[in-house]
Amino acid sequence: MKLFYSVLLSVSLLLWFERSYAYQTNKNADSVEVVMLNKQALANLRTDTAQAFTLANKAAGAAGRSEYFVGLGESYRILGILYSLKPDHKYAFEYFSKALKLFGKRGYNIGVAKVKNDLGTLYKANDPKEALTYFSEALPIAQKAGDSVLIATINVSIADVNFHQKRFAAAYQIYKASLGIFSRAGEEQEEISCAIKAGACGTILGKYQEAQSLLTDADTKARELNNAALLAEASLALADLYTAQEKFDLANKYLGEAGRINGGSKLRTDLLYTAYKLEFKKGNFKKAAEILNNLHLEDIEETKTKTLEQINLVQKKGEQDAELDAAKALLSQNKYSFNLFAGAAVLALLAISLVMLLILNVKRKAETNKKLSELNAEVSRQKDNLNRINHHLEEIIDERTKDLQIKNKKLSEYSSYLSHQIRGPIATLKGLMNLEKEGLVDKKECINMMNKCVSEIDDKIIDMSDMLHDPDRAGF
């Protein structure tokens, strides 16, 4: 009999080991698949978002089945990035929060740093202060892990905030330092993007030679990668550079190349703004005013959208915090219920336990109803606040529209004034030229009179320039 039980135990252990080994083998195979799918999704992030969504969702499914939670967290992070690019900040924040929770539980600090950088990027356009908070939390984690590419990525995000806050010198130094890291690591897309940002910054700072070197190199590499988005950015930056240098033919060439690329609303806005600067620099003030008017109308819609997105972000963050608190409360309650059930092993106390549970349920319902009432009141208050914000936005839109109409009228008056003031001296010049051809006037006297006319035209142009740069000056 003992021999029988020994054999039975040995067979059971053997089967258990076999199943464990098979499970572990399948789990490892699934993990490799998840890593591969996530990498493919990242590669398609900006070139084919639909394919990236498919790959990330497939990776998330495989990671969930194999309980590969780090891979699942990376899939959620990629989905968060994709939703932020749409943009759909509600779902982006939701997936970033899921990824952060999974990475934090398993102590995967690199993942935590990446998500915090992504969250900072999500807030960058609407709330730079909040964005810098996330970046400052992510940077020491990446530095401790020694991940140079991640450190450079976070530094570029910080430089972006500096750029938008017009701290161009600081942003330029960070971009150039990060560019070297991306180049050495072979991160081509990040290298090109960083070079474009550094070149744009260099243009603003007047470092034209350095900016041209950075941007032409970025343009060449973007063409080699056949990356339309990066090529459009490089072309616009080059158009801006050549506009600043008054090389208008080259500026028109690169502006046209950027315009031929089918991009989103951000590319259109950047195209309009670059075209406006080009026409203004060339002195085509009427055309510049028309472009500025279109740009202004799009800017109003963008401002309103960004404001609403900021409100949604704040509301979503509050909802996530509330859900986390509710989950903690539910976990605490479940532990209490389990302990209560375990303590009720004696049949004699079962009835008392059931009565107590019923009483607790009634109280919980009463508390739930009270909380629901408070939440309804809070929702009403938030709705009133949103209505007030929308009303304020409409007032801002009306004010900016009136301001633009006044500026357009002023520009038209400037144009008429310049035409009127210059027409007289030019007519005199033509008359003198005809008289000189007919030999009806002394050559020296003709030259003196022509110099006088040219000086008069020059004075009128200088006067016109002063009035353009000083709109409050009473010139006419």
UniProtKB/TrEMBL annotation:
UniProt keywords, alphabetically: Coiled coil, Cytoplasm, Membrane, Repeat, TPR repeat, Transmembrane, Transmembrane helix
Matches recorded under SMART domains: TPR (SM00028)
Subcellular localization(s) per the UniProt record: Cytoplasm
Coiled coil: 365-392
Annotated transmembrane regions: 340-362
Similarity remark: Belongs to the Rap family.
InterPro entries, alphabetized: Bac_ResReg_Asp_Phosphatase, HisK_dim/P_sf, TPR-like_helical_dom_sf, TPR_rpt
Sample GO molecular function, one term: phosphorelay sensor kinase activity
PROSITE patterns: TPR
Extent of the TPR repeats: 73-106
Keyword Iron among UniProt keywords: no
Chief place where the protein resides: cytoplasm
Protein's name in the database: Tetratricopeptide repeat protein
GO cellular component terms, semicolon-separated: cytoplasm
Keyword Kinase: no
